[in-house]
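Help needed: design a sequence for this.
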Protein backbone atom coordinates (compact mmCIF):
# COMPACT_ATOMS: atom_id res chain seq x y z
CA UNK A 1 0.00 0.00 0.00
CA UNK A 2 1.30 3.42 -0.93
CA UNK A 3 1.93 5.81 1.95
CA UNK A 4 1.64 9.57 1.52
CA UNK A 5 3.46 11.72 4.07
CA UNK A 6 1.51 14.80 5.11
CA UNK A 7 2.05 17.42 7.76
CA UNK A 8 0.95 16.20 11.18
CA UNK A 9 0.04 12.68 9.99
CA UNK A 10 1.68 9.58 11.30
CA UNK A 11 0.28 8.06 8.13
CA UNK A 12 -2.32 8.80 5.52
CA UNK A 13 -3.16 6.21 2.92
CA UNK A 14 -3.50 7.17 -0.71
CA UNK A 15 -6.60 5.37 -1.98
CA UNK A 16 -10.21 5.49 -0.82
CA UNK A 17 -10.31 1.71 -0.34
CA UNK A 18 -7.60 2.11 2.32
CA UNK A 19 -10.29 3.29 4.75
CA UNK A 20 -12.83 0.47 4.53
CA UNK A 21 -13.24 -3.15 3.52
CA UNK A 22 -16.07 -5.15 1.99
CA UNK A 23 -17.23 -5.87 5.56
CA UNK A 24 -18.02 -2.16 5.94
CA UNK A 25 -20.53 -2.25 3.07
CA UNK A 26 -24.25 -2.82 3.64
CA UNK A 27 -26.68 -3.70 0.84
CA UNK A 28 -30.06 -2.35 1.97
CA UNK A 29 -32.98 -4.59 1.03
CA UNK A 30 -35.75 -2.88 3.02
CA UNK A 31 -37.01 0.62 3.59
CA UNK A 32 -34.83 2.57 6.05
CA UNK A 33 -34.59 6.26 6.83
CA UNK A 34 -31.25 8.11 6.90
CA UNK A 35 -31.05 8.07 10.72
CA UNK A 36 -31.45 4.28 10.80
CA UNK A 37 -28.81 3.83 8.12
CA UNK A 38 -26.41 6.12 10.00
CA UNK A 39 -26.86 4.04 13.13
CA UNK A 40 -26.36 0.74 11.27
CA UNK A 41 -23.18 1.97 9.58
CA UNK A 42 -21.81 3.44 12.82
CA UNK A 43 -22.48 0.11 14.56
CA UNK A 44 -20.57 -1.58 11.75
CA UNK A 45 -17.53 0.66 12.31
CA UNK A 46 -17.77 0.27 16.08
CA UNK A 47 -17.77 -3.49 15.72
CA UNK A 48 -14.96 -3.54 13.15
CA UNK A 49 -12.67 -0.80 14.47
CA UNK A 50 -13.90 0.06 17.96
CA UNK A 51 -14.61 3.72 17.19
CA UNK A 52 -16.69 4.23 20.35
CA UNK A 53 -20.13 3.86 21.90
CA UNK A 54 -22.70 4.21 19.12
CA UNK A 55 -25.60 5.50 21.23
CA UNK A 56 -23.37 8.02 22.99
CA UNK A 57 -21.88 9.28 19.70
CA UNK A 58 -25.26 9.72 18.04
CA UNK A 59 -26.98 11.27 21.07
CA UNK A 60 -24.15 13.78 21.53
CA UNK A 61 -24.23 14.73 17.86
CA UNK A 62 -28.00 15.17 17.87
CA UNK A 63 -27.84 17.20 21.08
CA UNK A 64 -25.36 19.63 19.53
CA UNK A 65 -26.76 19.81 15.99
CA UNK A 66 -30.46 19.19 16.57
CA UNK A 67 -30.50 16.11 14.37
CA UNK A 68 -28.58 14.13 11.78
CA UNK A 69 -28.18 16.14 8.59
CA UNK A 70 -26.31 14.16 5.92
CA UNK A 71 -24.67 16.10 3.11
CA UNK A 72 -26.32 15.55 -0.28
CA UNK A 73 -23.98 14.93 -3.23
CA UNK A 74 -25.36 15.32 -6.75
CA UNK A 75 -28.83 14.15 -5.61
CA UNK A 76 -27.62 10.55 -5.58
CA UNK A 77 -25.48 10.11 -2.47
CA UNK A 78 -25.57 11.07 1.20
CA UNK A 79 -22.62 11.53 3.53
CA UNK A 80 -22.89 11.54 7.32
CA UNK A 81 -19.80 12.50 9.29
CA UNK A 82 -18.87 12.14 12.95
CA UNK A 83 -15.79 13.83 14.45
CA UNK A 84 -14.58 11.80 17.38
CA UNK A 85 -11.98 11.96 20.11
CA UNK A 86 -12.21 8.16 20.23
CA UNK A 87 -10.45 7.53 16.91
CA UNK A 88 -7.06 8.55 15.56
CA UNK A 89 -7.80 7.36 12.04
CA UNK A 90 -10.39 7.97 9.35
CA UNK A 91 -12.86 5.12 8.93
CA UNK A 92 -15.48 4.71 6.23
CA UNK A 93 -18.61 2.60 5.77
CA UNK A 94 -21.13 2.67 2.96
CA UNK A 95 -24.65 1.50 2.22
CA UNK A 96 -26.34 0.92 -1.13
CA UNK A 97 -30.08 1.08 -1.69
CA UNK A 98 -31.44 0.31 -5.14
CA UNK A 99 -34.90 1.37 -3.94
CA UNK A 100 -33.56 4.74 -2.76
CA UNK A 101 -33.22 6.66 0.49
CA UNK A 102 -35.53 9.64 0.86
CA UNK A 103 -34.09 12.73 2.55
CA UNK A 104 -35.16 16.35 2.80
CA UNK A 105 -33.26 19.48 3.71
CA UNK A 106 -34.14 23.15 3.66
CA UNK A 107 -33.68 23.38 -0.10
CA UNK A 108 -34.90 20.14 -1.66
CA UNK A 109 -36.03 16.57 -1.35
CA UNK A 110 -34.06 13.75 -3.00
CA UNK A 111 -34.02 9.99 -3.24
CA UNK A 112 -30.38 8.93 -2.90
CA UNK A 113 -29.02 5.46 -3.53
CA UNK A 114 -25.60 5.63 -1.86
CA UNK A 115 -24.87 6.47 1.77
CA UNK A 116 -21.35 7.04 3.09
CA UNK A 117 -20.58 7.35 6.78
CA UNK A 118 -17.21 8.78 7.80
CA UNK A 119 -15.64 8.97 11.25
CA UNK A 120 -12.51 11.06 11.66
CA UNK A 121 -10.28 12.44 14.43
CA UNK A 122 -11.85 15.48 16.10
CA UNK A 123 -8.77 17.66 15.65
CA UNK A 124 -8.14 16.88 11.98
CA UNK A 125 -10.81 18.52 9.79
CA UNK A 126 -8.58 18.18 6.73
CA UNK A 127 -8.82 14.38 6.77
CA UNK A 128 -12.60 14.32 6.47
CA UNK A 129 -12.60 17.03 3.80
CA UNK A 130 -10.03 15.15 1.75
CA UNK A 131 -12.11 11.98 1.92
CA UNK A 132 -15.16 13.99 0.87
CA UNK A 133 -13.23 15.39 -2.08
CA UNK A 134 -12.33 11.86 -3.17
CA UNK A 135 -15.95 10.68 -2.91
CA UNK A 136 -17.20 13.64 -4.95
CA UNK A 137 -14.57 12.93 -7.60
CA UNK A 138 -15.58 9.25 -7.77
CA UNK A 139 -19.28 10.05 -8.15
CA UNK A 140 -18.71 12.32 -11.14
CA UNK A 141 -18.52 9.14 -13.23
CA UNK A 142 -22.26 8.43 -13.63
CA UNK A 143 -21.75 5.06 -15.30
CA UNK A 144 -19.54 3.93 -12.43
CA UNK A 145 -22.11 5.17 -9.92
CA UNK A 146 -24.84 3.18 -11.67
CA UNK A 147 -22.64 0.07 -11.49
CA UNK A 148 -22.32 0.54 -7.74
CA UNK A 149 -26.05 1.05 -7.22
CA UNK A 150 -27.01 -2.02 -9.26
CA UNK A 151 -24.51 -4.34 -7.55
CA UNK A 152 -25.84 -6.63 -4.83
CA UNK A 153 -22.55 -8.18 -3.75
CA UNK A 154 -20.59 -6.12 -1.23
CA UNK A 155 -17.24 -7.69 -2.12
CA UNK A 156 -17.82 -6.85 -5.78
CA UNK A 157 -18.71 -3.28 -4.77
CA UNK A 158 -15.45 -2.88 -2.86
CA UNK A 159 -13.51 -4.29 -5.83
CA UNK A 160 -15.21 -1.80 -8.17
CA UNK A 161 -14.04 1.07 -5.97
CA UNK A 162 -10.56 -0.43 -5.72
CA UNK A 163 -10.30 -0.75 -9.52
CA UNK A 164 -11.39 2.88 -9.83
CA UNK A 165 -8.19 3.91 -7.98
CA UNK A 166 -9.88 6.82 -6.21
CA UNK A 167 -6.98 8.91 -4.92
CA UNK A 168 -7.14 10.99 -1.74
CA UNK A 169 -5.91 14.55 -2.53
CA UNK A 170 -3.02 16.00 -0.54
CA UNK A 171 -5.13 19.01 0.45
CA UNK A 172 -8.62 20.42 0.01
CA UNK A 173 -9.16 23.00 -2.73
CA UNK A 174 -11.67 25.84 -2.86
CA UNK A 175 -13.82 23.95 -5.35
CA UNK A 176 -14.37 21.23 -2.73
CA UNK A 177 -16.15 23.50 -0.24
CA UNK A 178 -17.73 26.22 -2.39
CA UNK A 179 -21.43 26.59 -3.15
CA UNK A 180 -22.66 27.57 -6.58
CA UNK A 181 -23.84 31.19 -6.89
CA UNK A 182 -27.64 31.29 -6.91
CA UNK A 183 -28.08 34.96 -7.74
CA UNK A 184 -25.90 37.22 -9.91
CA UNK A 185 -26.55 40.55 -11.54
CA UNK A 186 -25.20 41.83 -14.83
CA UNK A 187 -22.86 44.79 -15.00
CA UNK A 188 -25.22 46.47 -17.46
CA UNK A 189 -28.08 46.48 -14.94
CA UNK A 190 -29.03 49.53 -12.92
CA UNK A 191 -29.43 50.20 -9.22
CA UNK A 192 -33.18 49.66 -9.39
CA UNK A 193 -32.63 46.03 -10.43
CA UNK A 194 -30.16 45.52 -7.58
CA UNK A 195 -32.55 46.94 -4.96
CA UNK A 196 -35.34 44.70 -6.26
CA UNK A 197 -33.05 41.67 -5.86
CA UNK A 198 -32.04 42.68 -2.33
CA UNK A 199 -35.70 42.96 -1.35
CA UNK A 200 -36.68 39.69 -3.05
CA UNK A 201 -33.79 37.51 -1.87
CA UNK A 202 -32.95 39.16 1.49
CA UNK A 203 -29.29 38.81 0.49
CA UNK A 204 -26.76 41.35 1.74
CA UNK A 205 -24.51 41.25 -1.32
CA UNK A 206 -24.84 40.22 -4.96
CA UNK A 207 -21.95 39.41 -7.33
CA UNK A 208 -21.77 41.43 -10.54
CA UNK A 209 -20.71 39.61 -13.73
CA UNK A 210 -20.20 40.65 -17.33
CA UNK A 211 -21.71 39.00 -20.44
CA UNK A 212 -19.10 36.20 -20.28
CA UNK A 213 -19.82 35.38 -16.63
CA UNK A 214 -16.56 36.97 -15.46
CA UNK A 215 -16.69 38.51 -11.99
CA UNK A 216 -16.27 42.28 -12.16
CA UNK A 217 -17.46 43.38 -8.72
CA UNK A 218 -20.21 43.13 -6.15
CA UNK A 219 -23.01 45.36 -4.98
CA UNK A 220 -23.84 45.36 -1.28
CA UNK A 221 -26.53 46.58 1.08
CA UNK A 222 -23.81 48.36 3.03
CA UNK A 223 -22.73 50.27 -0.05
CA UNK A 224 -26.34 51.35 -0.63
CA UNK A 225 -26.43 52.67 2.92
CA UNK A 226 -23.14 54.50 2.33
CA UNK A 227 -24.66 56.17 -0.74
CA UNK A 228 -27.81 57.17 1.15
CA UNK A 229 -26.07 58.13 4.36
CA UNK A 230 -22.76 59.77 3.41
CA UNK A 231 -20.23 60.39 6.14
CA UNK A 232 -21.13 64.03 6.69
CA UNK A 233 -24.57 62.88 7.86
CA UNK A 234 -23.04 60.34 10.20
CA UNK A 235 -20.99 63.11 11.78
CA UNK A 236 -24.00 65.39 12.39
CA UNK A 237 -25.10 65.87 15.98
CA UNK A 238 -28.49 67.13 14.82
CA UNK A 239 -30.41 64.61 12.69
CA UNK A 240 -33.64 66.62 12.26
CA UNK A 241 -32.77 67.38 8.57
CA UNK A 242 -33.04 63.65 7.77
CA UNK A 243 -35.82 62.54 10.10
CA UNK A 244 -38.07 61.76 7.13
CA UNK A 245 -35.43 59.82 5.18
CA UNK A 246 -34.60 62.82 3.00
CA UNK A 247 -31.16 61.34 2.33
CA UNK A 248 -32.80 58.39 0.54
CA UNK A 249 -34.92 60.51 -1.75
CA UNK A 250 -32.18 61.32 -4.23
CA UNK A 251 -31.28 57.65 -4.60
CA UNK A 252 -34.94 56.68 -5.12
CA UNK A 253 -35.30 59.40 -7.72
CA UNK A 254 -32.21 58.28 -9.63
CA UNK A 255 -32.19 54.48 -9.08
CA UNK A 256 -33.35 53.76 -12.63
CA UNK A 257 -30.54 55.91 -14.05
CA UNK A 258 -27.72 54.83 -11.71
CA UNK A 259 -25.57 52.03 -13.12
CA UNK A 260 -23.95 49.39 -10.98
CA UNK A 261 -20.54 50.42 -12.27
CA UNK A 262 -20.95 53.62 -10.25
CA UNK A 263 -21.49 51.96 -6.87
CA UNK A 264 -20.16 48.39 -7.02
CA UNK A 265 -17.16 47.26 -5.00
CA UNK A 266 -14.11 45.85 -6.76
CA UNK A 267 -11.90 45.00 -3.78
CA UNK A 268 -13.20 41.54 -2.88
CA UNK A 269 -11.94 38.28 -1.39
CA UNK A 270 -11.25 36.24 -4.54
CA UNK A 271 -9.51 32.88 -5.05
CA UNK A 272 -9.19 30.33 -7.84
CA UNK A 273 -11.14 27.06 -7.65
CA UNK A 274 -7.94 24.99 -7.46
CA UNK A 275 -6.36 27.15 -4.74
CA UNK A 276 -6.04 25.52 -1.31
CA UNK A 277 -9.34 26.01 0.54
CA UNK A 278 -7.53 27.60 3.50
CA UNK A 279 -6.76 30.55 1.22
CA UNK A 280 -10.47 31.49 1.35
CA UNK A 281 -10.18 31.96 5.10
CA UNK A 282 -7.00 34.00 4.69
CA UNK A 283 -8.52 36.31 2.07
CA UNK A 284 -11.74 36.80 4.03
CA UNK A 285 -9.76 37.68 7.15
CA UNK A 286 -7.54 40.14 5.28
CA UNK A 287 -10.54 42.08 3.97
CA UNK A 288 -12.88 41.49 6.94
CA UNK A 289 -15.22 39.92 4.39
CA UNK A 290 -17.98 37.42 5.11
CA UNK A 291 -17.52 35.50 1.87
CA UNK A 292 -14.95 34.70 -0.82
CA UNK A 293 -15.67 34.39 -4.53
CA UNK A 294 -14.28 31.35 -6.35
CA UNK A 295 -13.15 31.79 -9.95
CA UNK A 296 -12.13 29.61 -12.86
CA UNK A 297 -9.65 32.10 -14.30
CA UNK A 298 -11.99 35.15 -14.36
CA UNK A 299 -15.34 33.35 -14.52
CA UNK A 300 -17.39 33.16 -11.32
CA UNK A 301 -18.02 29.50 -10.42
CA UNK A 302 -18.69 29.56 -6.69
CA UNK A 303 -18.91 31.34 -3.37
CA UNK A 304 -17.55 30.34 0.03
CA UNK A 305 -19.62 32.10 2.71
CA UNK A 306 -17.73 32.45 5.98
CA UNK A 307 -20.42 30.37 7.70
CA UNK A 308 -19.86 27.60 5.16
CA UNK A 309 -16.11 27.80 5.77
CA UNK A 310 -16.50 27.61 9.56
CA UNK A 311 -19.02 24.78 9.35
CA UNK A 312 -16.84 22.70 7.04
CA UNK A 313 -13.65 23.23 9.02
CA UNK A 314 -14.92 23.21 12.60
CA UNK A 315 -18.17 21.25 12.69
CA UNK A 316 -19.39 19.27 9.63
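Sure. Designed sequence:
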Amino acid sequence: MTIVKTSGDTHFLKYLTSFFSSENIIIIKRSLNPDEISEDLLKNLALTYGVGNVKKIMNEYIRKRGGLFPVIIDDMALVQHFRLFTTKKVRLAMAISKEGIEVKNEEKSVKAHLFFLIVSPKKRPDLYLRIMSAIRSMLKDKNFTEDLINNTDKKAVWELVEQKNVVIPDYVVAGDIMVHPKIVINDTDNLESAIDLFVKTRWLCIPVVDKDGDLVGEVTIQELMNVCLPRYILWMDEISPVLNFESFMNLLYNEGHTWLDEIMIRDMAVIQMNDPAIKAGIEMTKLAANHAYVLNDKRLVGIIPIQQFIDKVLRE
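The longest strand covers residues 91-104.
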